[in-house]
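anyone seen this seq b4? input:
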Amino acid sequence: MQQKELEAYMAEPGHHEPVGGGAPTLQDVAQAAGVSRQTVSNVLHAPERVRPATRERVVEFISRLGYQPNRQAQALARSASHMIGCRIRPLTPGALTSMHDRFLHALAEAGRAADHHLLLFAAEDESAEIDSVGRLHRGGAADAFVLYDLTADDQRPKALLDIGVPFVAFGRTDTGADTYPWVDVDNVLGTRLAVDHLVNRGHRRIAFLGWPSGRTIGDRRARGWHQAVESHRLAATCGVLDVRSEDSVQAAIQVTFRLLEHSEPPTAIVTATDTLAVGAMQAAQRWGLEVGRDLAVVGFDDTPTAAALELSSIRQPIELVARQVVTALLGTDKVGPGRKLLEPQLVIRSSSARPASPRR
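predicted toks r here
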C-alpha cells in the first residue's frame, strides 16, 4: 500500500491515529490493516499462521505506524518477566568495600547465564522493601526476588511467604529458616578457621574485633571465635580480648589502641570484616608494631583491599552463593529443599603467615 493509499485509509471513519498522539497500539495496527488483533499478534509471534498477503500488509502497517511491541506486556502474558528483583542496600559509612556490591555483580552474572536479569530497587527499610516487592511482583516487573542480609528475627521471609511472592534469601534467620529457601555462608566456621590458623602459628593471646552485639552475621562470627578459643583452652587468656566496633576504619583504630594498651596485649587479632582489619593494621603501625611480625591480623570477606594489603582473610564464595541463589529461584535445584550452608576459605597472606614472635 502506497503512502497516499495509507493516508486515505486512515481518513476513513473508524480509522485514526493513536488517541492523544501517543505511541501506536496493537489495536491501531489491526484497525489500519483491517484485521483482528489476534492476526497482528500472530504476525509478531507466529507468522507461519498468517497468509503471506495478509502478513505482508500487517508488517507494512507496523512499519508505517512505527508500532513497538510492549515487551513487558508480552512478559506478563507469559507470566515470565525474566527479571529477578533485589533491593539496593545503602553503603556503610567508613567501610572500605561493600560485600553487597560484590554479591549484586555475581548475581547479575549468574542471572545472565540463566537468561535472567536484575531489577534493582531502593527502599528505606525492610517494611518498605516488603511493600515494594509486593507491588513489583503484582505488576509483573519481576518473577522472583532475593533477600539480602537477614537479621535474627527478620520479618521479610514470612511476609513474602504470606503474600505468595517467590524468593530466596542470602542469609537466614535464627528461627523459621526451615520454611523458606536460603543460601548462606558458615560465618561461625570462618572465624574458627582464623583462630585455628593463628594457634597453629603459635599465638595464644588472640583478640576478636567485631561488630556490636545484635547483628546476626557479626554475632555468628563472634560465636566462631568464642568456640575456637574455648576448644583450644584459651578462653581464660582471650576472654578479655573480645572488643566491638562499628564497621569503619577509624572506629577500629580507636578500639585496637585499647587492646594494645592492655597489660597483656594480643599477639593476633581476628576481625569480623576486612574494614575492621585495616583499622587494626593501621593502629598497630601507629603503635610502632610491624604487622605480620609483632601482630598478626586476619580479616573477613577477602575483599580486593585484603589482597592489596597482603591481609589474610576469610573468603566467602560469593560467586557460588549467587549461582546457588539463581538455581533455587528458577527451581532447577534437584538436590535438597533449597537451603544450603556453604563453607568459607581462609586465604593466608603476610599479615599472619609468620610464626608468633617469641618476644610477644
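Residues 140 and 359 are 65 Å apart (CA to CA). Residues 1-17, 71-79 have pLDDT under 50 and may be disordered. kinda curious what u guys think
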